[in-house]
Amino acid sequence: MWSRLEPYRSSIILLLALIAGGVLGIYAPTFAAKLQPIGQIFLNLLFMIIVPLVGISVMSSIARMTDLKRLGRIMAIIFIVSIAMALIPAAGIVALALWYNPAQGVTIDLSKSVEAGSGKMDFVSMITTHDFVGLFSKSNILALIVMAIIAGIAIGQSENAGQRIASLLEDANTVIMKIVSIIMTVAPVGLGCYFAATMASQDSGILLTFARAIILFMAATVVYYILGSILYSWIGGGMPAVKAFWRNAIPPSVTALGTCSSLGTLPVTIRAGKAMGINPEIVDVSLPLLVNLNKGGVAMIAALKIVFIYSVLGMEFTTETFFLTMLIAVLSAIIVGGVPGGAFLGEIFIVTTLGLPMETIPMLVVLGTITDAPATLINVIHDLNAAQIIERFTGKKQPSTEATQTAAAL
Question: For the chain, which end, N or C, has fewer CB atoms within 10 Å of the first or last residue's CB respectively?
Answer without folding.
Answer: N
